[in-house]
Inverse folding.
């Protein structure tokens, strides 16, 4: 089980929760389970999601394994120009 801290936009979609616990071993599984539990997150997912694992931000690597006891943050993906 991993604890996922949510940025403010994701909190609204997660019934106001600042963090949630999910049983996931990869980023892909984590995002799928979050969408199943909180369908309102789909709007954020469509806009782009970044996942921070132990301070490293990942944008497009969905098959990345999540280490046990990892510090995870779900963030909106920043658009560059």
């Amino acid at each position: 089980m991993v604890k996922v801290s949510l940025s403010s936009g994701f909190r609204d979609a997660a019934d106001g929760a600042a963090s949630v616990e999910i049983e996931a071993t990869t980023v892909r599984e984590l995002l799928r389970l979050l969408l199943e539990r909180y369908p309102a997150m789909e709007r954020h997912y469509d806009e782009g999601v970044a996942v921070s694992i132990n301070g490293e931000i990942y944008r497009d690597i969905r098959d990345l394994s999540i280490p046990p006891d990892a510090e995870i943050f779900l963030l909106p993906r920043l658009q560059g120009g």
Observations:
- The chain has three helices and five strands.
